[in-house]
Specification:
Blueprint (H helix, E strand, L loop, with lengths): L6 E5 L11 E8 L5 H10 L5 E4 L5 E3 L3 E8 L4 E6 L3 E7 L4 H10 L24 E2 L2 E2 L4 E8 L4 E6 H4 L7 H5 L4 E11 L11 H5 L6 H15 L7 E5 L5 E2 L1 H10 L5 E4 L2 E4 L1 H7 L6 E2 L2 E4 L2 E7 L5 H19 L8 E3 L2
Parallel strand pairs: 2-5, 3-5, 4-20
Antiparallel strand pairs: 1-2, 6-7, 7-12, 8-9, 10-11, 10-12, 13-19, 14-16, 15-16, 17-18, 18-19
Bound molecules: flavin-adenine dinucleotide (FAD).
């Protein structure tokens, strides 16, 4: 097998949705798992340099050039691998575009992933933070994944339990970050789906329409397009902060001072709306140079054109500090901040 081409000083501007002008010291694109041999050989010559797996670059903020090897994962596959009385099992390669994969499953008549339509990025990155939207999370339809420890070439299957999925979190994000290259993900899609349309705005946009997976997907696409900036036009990484979880006591103290504070109970904790907290601090639509928050959604940090990653990160720090000051709540960034 021919060695994959390794590029040097490679621009990542088109490969991160903030549109930041950053470079990878080394870069290669991985269409098959066999290509990892090239990365391992490179690693032997550069044992001290880091490796970063890249999907669509829609959940990353680069605040510096990357000093090591960026590996763009392009493994392709879409396949029904099994079926039983209740479920269809569908496997996808990590490099598949997430939204195209979702629409493909719906087109084959397999429901389940419709609420996750139009989330940018790849299939392989989706388990990283257990992507979620409109009342559904990846974990709800996940079966298993294959991942490779790129240092030893050990290939391992991870079950639902192994992945330790939680709100915008997983084993791969917080327990062993950077160790596993996710190669394929298998979903278990129900033959008798239960529609989830009670999320704000969804049932309204479906009024008068035939209720099926494709109409739900269409409605969610329309809603997302009306609420979120298109990264091709305005650089962003979607929600920049997680919705914070606080104790019941902490919430009672916040509620006493801010009676309108929206909240949802989550097991023994209370989930707050990060967007609302940021909005209350006066950040919605604010701009500092070319870094800013989106005018319609304070939770989305945007690059108006020439902002650097450092400027966006400084804005994020200022937002974190003011929410901490006003509410005593610590916001946590959702994207991976690279170069911190
Ligand atoms: C407009 C917009 C809207 C969004 N809406 C949502 C939303 O509703 N819900 C939601 O959950 N997210 C949302 N996101 C965030 C983002 O789309 C998701 O997190 C997505 O899964 C990231 O995919 P990616 O391929 O772009 O990942 P990248 O940004 O390339 O990578 C993200 C992380 O995954 C790692 N990674 C990538 N591929 C692999 C692999 N094959 N193996 C191992 N590690 C890997 C990277 O190293 C990095 O740590 C949104 C982003 C944007 C720009």
């Amino acid at each position: 097998m021919p060695r994959m081409k390794i590029y040097e000083h490679y621009s990542l501007k088109a490969l991160n949705t903030f549109g930041l002008e950053v470079q990878a010291r080394y870069f290669c694109s991985l269409p098959t798992l066999g290509g990892l041999k090239t990365v391992m050989l490179w690693r032997r010559e550069h044992p001290d340099l880091p490796v970063l797996f890249l999907g669509g670059g829609s959940n990353m903020l680069f605040i510096a050039d990357f000093p090591g090897m960026v590996v763009q994962v392009r493994l392709a596959e879409r396949k029904v691998i099994a079926e039983d009385q209740h479920y269809v099992y569908v496997r996808a390669g990590a490099g598949e575009n997430w939204h195209e994969f979702v629409r493909w499953t719906l087109g084959q008549g397999y429901a389940g992933l419709e609420n996750l339509s139009l989330i940018p990025g790849t299939v392989g990155a989706a388990p990283m933070q257990n992507i979620g939207a409109y009342g559904v999370e990846l974990k709800d339809h996940f079966y298993e994944l294959d991942a490779l420890d790129w240092r030893t070439a050990e290939l391992r299957k991870f079950s639902l339990d192994d992945c330790a999925f939680a709100y915008r979190d997983s084993h791969f994000k917080s327990v062993e970050p950077g160790r596993w290259l996710i190669a394929t993900v298998t979903f278990r899609l129900p033959k008798q789906p239960v529609w989830k349309t009670n999320y704000a705005g969804v049932s309204e946009s479906l009024a008068g329409k035939v209720l099926d997976a494709l109409s739900i997907s269409d409605a969610i696409m329309t809603l997302r397009q009306s609420k979120l900036p298109d990264p091709a036009i305005l650089g962003n990484a979607g929600s920049f902060f997680k919705n914070p979880l606080v104790t019941v006591e902490a919430f009672a103290a916040i509620k006493a001072k801010f009676p309108d504070c929206p909240a949802w109970t989550q097991e023994s904790l209370v989930k707050l709306s990060a967007g609302w907290l940021i909005d209350q601090c006066g950040w919605k639509g604010k701009r500092v140079g070319d870094a800013g928050t989106y005018a319609q959604h304070a939770l989305v940090l945007v690059n108006h054109g020439q902002a650097s990653g450092v400027e966006i990160w400084q804005l994020a720090q200022a937002i974190i500090a003011s929410v901490q000051d006003k509410f005593g709540v610590c916001l946590e960034p959702e994207p991976q901040v690279i170069g911190k």
